[in-house]
Design a protein that fits this description.
About 80% of the residues lie in helices and about 0% in strands. It is mainly α.
Length: about 80
């Protein structure tokens, strides 16, 4: 349950940062562009967070399956 909440909060944080950056860039042009930039930035931020979470899980699986990552006792 804790991992799930952490993933949701990470996605929200990235979406908020993306929205702020998008709105800031759009605000340089007009109010409408700020609104659109914020929306697009939020989507991009959420997508980045989701991709990052998926990649971390995939990398852990690969490390578990990789025979080179296991320690070998040489006694």
């Amino acid at each position: 349950m804790r991992e799930r909440i952490t993933a949701v909060l990470l996605r929200a944080r990235y979406a908020a940062m993306g929205a702020a950056i998008g709105a800031g860039i759009g605000g340089l042009f007009s109010r409408n562009a700020a609104s659109t930039g914020g929306a697009i930035g939020g989507l991009v931020g959420a997508t980045v967070a989701e991709t990052r979470g998926t990649l971390e899980g995939t990398l852990e699986e690969v490390k578990e399956r990789d025979p080179r990552s296991k320690s070998v006792d040489t006694e």
